[in-house]
Amino acid sequence: MQLYSSRPGQAVWQAVGDLVAIGTIIAAVWLSQQVGAAIASLGGFGEQVAAAGSGFSTTLADAGEALAQVPLVGEGVAQPFRDAAGSATELEAAGSALTDAVDMLAGAVATALWLLPLLLVVLVWIVPRLRFATRAGASRALAQSREGRDLLAMRAIVGQPMAAVLRAVPDPVAALRAGDEDALRALASLELRSAGVRDPRLRP
């Protein structure tokens, strides 16, 4: 597999693109951690509410139990405290639910902040880079044999811009039928250059 083009200009841009892609992923991961931590810190309010509700519930319940011991009026006086303790318990549950919701939101936002850029980098850069590497490797392998070079020549006729083909060989179809070695070599070289592979028959 050939990762970089044999053409210096294209290879430089590929290397720069690779660095930008890596930098984008690193920055996205760092940003996701920072934003996730910032959102998660808001869960402290829910924890405070839950702690306050728990404290109120315990205090009011204890007070109600103490008042219940008062003869004659104890139960009547204690009941409002028991009801208030139940409300405080609901406040504790609401605080816990708020904390859980904030934690879930922090996790979802943090994941989205690194996952979406990663998918974008994969689709926009990594997939085309892998296609280039696969094509370059296959073209380099074909160039090692005469039959492979003939196939490269046919690919050039079919896939390369017609103007470029005609500049290389004025009548490519006739040259292909006649088995013109020089013409086939020129067409194969055209296909190799397009794939980012240096023609092994040429000196570097």
In short:
Helix content is 84%, strand content 0%. The chain has 204 residues and is mainly alpha-helical.
3D architecture notes:
The chain has seven helices and no strands. With 204 residues, it is mostly helical. The radius of gyration is 36 Å and the shape is rod-shaped. The mean pLDDT is 83. The chain crosses the membrane at residues 12-31, 104-127.
Question: Pairing-aware structural class of the strands and helices?
Answer: mainly alpha
Report the biggest beta sheet as strand number plus sense, adding barrel if it closes. Answer: none
Number of helices: 7
Integer average pLDDT? 83
Over all CA atoms, what is the radius of gyration? 36 Å
Topology order in helix (H) and strand (E) letters: HHHHHHH
Please report the distance between the alpha carbons of the first and last residues. 19 Å
Dominant shape: rod-shaped
Helix content: over 70%
* Beta-strand content estimate: under 5%
Number of separate structural domains: 2
Low-confidence region ranges: none
How many beta-strand elements? 0
